[in-house]
């Protein structure tokens, strides 16, 4: 098979696999919300909650074992930093950048709502209480030490109702999509820069294995957010197109991998994306489910299984992990 034909086949294959698996959670959530039988609806909601914890474990392993090592390797190859832990600094910078942006937005919204209350005007969805406005602002919270069994208006939340009662933050879901999409472009570059058909197929298998799991987790996170249906579809499409775009760029670039400047750009961009990824994983994906009461040990087990799946993929196929000749080395 011609090398370019193989790359085009991989490009289309990555698009189809990623788009299908990222859209699958939409159908699952639709089934739950349109199920009349309440007992069955509660069972479906329980399964979705466990799948969300599984996705959290997948995201955690991806960040710790895949994203951050690639950042460190790219900057090490560029000999940038002179002994200073630049990879850790860039990751932390990306983390605090997102935290600062979100807190500024939340502070603005909170202040605006309090001004509305001070004028005696009602705010939909609250008891028109200042403290409640602050609680509903969506600010960063850690895992609570007590189960969330009631909504903000005091009504109880059954397992089925919990699917929609506490949706994921729109801002963080969009950030998660952006961070994963940026990283996917670099993964696509690794495939596009291969010089043999065997190398292309080897990298395609390595990337598609862990990308399939991540696509489902991202789709589930987006499906549980406040985003509209078309916004979710567009976000999934952007993520699905990221790797094929990377493949196409890699096919059109010569000697990209020998530039030290490109290694620095690669490391900086992926470092900022890694910090964003950690922020969303530990402040949104995991707390969203672990703050809900019930099935705590099962949720823990699901998180560990998700983490173990990525570990297994990287152990069984070393090309899925950043190392001397792996994807990062090919594009830096």
UniProtKB/TrEMBL annotation:
It is a multi-pass membrane protein. Pfam families: Zip (PF02535). Its main location: membrane. This is Zinc transporter ZIP1-like. The chain crosses the membrane at residues 6-32, 44-68, 80-99, 174-197, 203-223, 235-253, 265-285, 297-316. Keywords: Membrane, Transmembrane, Transmembrane helix. The keyword Transferase does not apply. It is found in: Membrane. It comes from Thrips palmi. GO terms for cellular component: plasma membrane. GO terms for molecular function: zinc ion transmembrane transporter activity.
């Amino acid at each position: 098979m011609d090398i370019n034909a193989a790359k085009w086949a991989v490009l289309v294959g990555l698009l189809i696999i990623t788009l299908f698996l990222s859209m699958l959670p939409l159908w699952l959530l639709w089934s739950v919300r349109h199920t009349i039988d309440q007992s069955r609806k509660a069972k479906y909601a329980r399964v979705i909650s466990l799948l969300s914890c599984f996705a959290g474990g997948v995201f955690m392993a991806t960040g710790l074992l895949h994203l951050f090592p690639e950042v460190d390797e790219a900057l090490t190859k560029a000999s940038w930093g002179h002994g200073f832990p630049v990879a850790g600094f860039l990751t932390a910078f990306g983390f605090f950048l997102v935290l600062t942006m979100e807190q500024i937005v939340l502070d603005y919204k909170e202040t605006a709502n309090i001004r509305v209350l001070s004028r005696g005007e009602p705010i939909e969805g609250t008891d028109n209480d200042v403290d409640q406005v602050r609680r509903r602002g969506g600010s960063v919270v850690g895992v609570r030490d007590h189960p969330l069994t009631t909504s903000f208006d005091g009504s109880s939340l059954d397992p089925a109702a919990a699917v929609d009662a506490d949706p994921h933050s729109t801002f963080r879901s969009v950030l998660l999509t952006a961070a994963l999409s940026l990283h996917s472009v670099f993964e696509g570059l690794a495939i596009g820069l291969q010089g043999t058909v065997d190398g292309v197929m080897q990298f395609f298998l390595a990337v598609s294995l862990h990308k399939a799991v991540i696509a489902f987790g991202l789709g589930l996170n987006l499906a549980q957010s406040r985003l509209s249906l078309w916004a979710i579809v567009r976000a999934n499409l952007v993520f699905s197109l990221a790797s094929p775009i990377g493949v196409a760029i890699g096919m059109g670039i010569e000697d990209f991998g020998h530039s030290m400047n490109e290694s620095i750009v690669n490391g900086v961009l992926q470092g900022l994306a890694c910090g964003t990824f950690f922020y969303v994983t530990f402040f949104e994906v995991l707390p969203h489910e672990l703050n809900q009461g019930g099935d705590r040990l099962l949720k823990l087990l699901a998180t560990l299984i998700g983490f173990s799946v990525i570990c297994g993929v990287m152990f069984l196929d070393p090309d899925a992990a950043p190392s001397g000749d792996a994807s990062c080395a090919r594009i830096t």
